Amino acid sequence: MFRAKTALLITACVTAIAVTVLAVWGVADLKQASAAPLIVIDPGHGGTDGGVTGAETKVKEAEINLEISLLLEEELTRRGFNTVKTRSSSGTAAIVAGEKQQDMERRKEIILSANPSLVVSIHCNKFPSSSRRGAQVFFNPLSESGQALAKRLQDSLNILNLVEVGRGYTALSGDYYILNCSPYPSAIVECGFLSNAEDERLLLSQDYRTKLVNAVADGIQRFLFTDSSR
After folding, report:
1. For labelling, which of 5, 23, 91, 124 has a CA lying 20 to 30 Å from the CA of 208?
2. Is the pTM above the cut of 0.85?
3. What DSSP designation does 99 have?
4. Which of these, 177, 187, 66, 173, lies nearest to 117 by C-alpha position?
């Protein structure tokens, strides 16, 4: 009887210790997960707002933005980042699809609620001259951190630009709602010009999208971990 009670007591103690250890490990894991930088990915346009269209295929910008954003989410998650998207489907972020102002305000709410390390908005460009090509980044001129983020992103994307376009670009300032609506470092990545047939072809290519997403992820990583201004 004494041995049985002793065995039960030892088993109970071991179980209690195991539960305590697992609980501590769980807390540590949660702390580590919460400490990982959180990136808000904003796929531009959506719903009745399709954005610009492709010069040849007439593909909607909103569709490309979402597909690239989904790939970016996968890559950032693989690298250990946490992510939040302002939309996850072909619709808008708004409760009532098609209302542009409500859509933008809802995106702002998502960003503020997420309290992110930074915001990257994914778009495609258009220009009157069909010869204009390449990936271009925009930032809020009143945000030093936004400008630093845009520079990192542009430097990374210029590696692709030099190969595909034959030249690099400088990140540009711009007055856009998504850049101005929060205090977090924010940048718009215009992934290419749908008004240019070659850029349109690249933007529809899975191989190029993968290269583009890796370049954006590289820029984010360098901004967060190697930028001396941070």
Report:
1. 91
2. no
3. -
4. 187
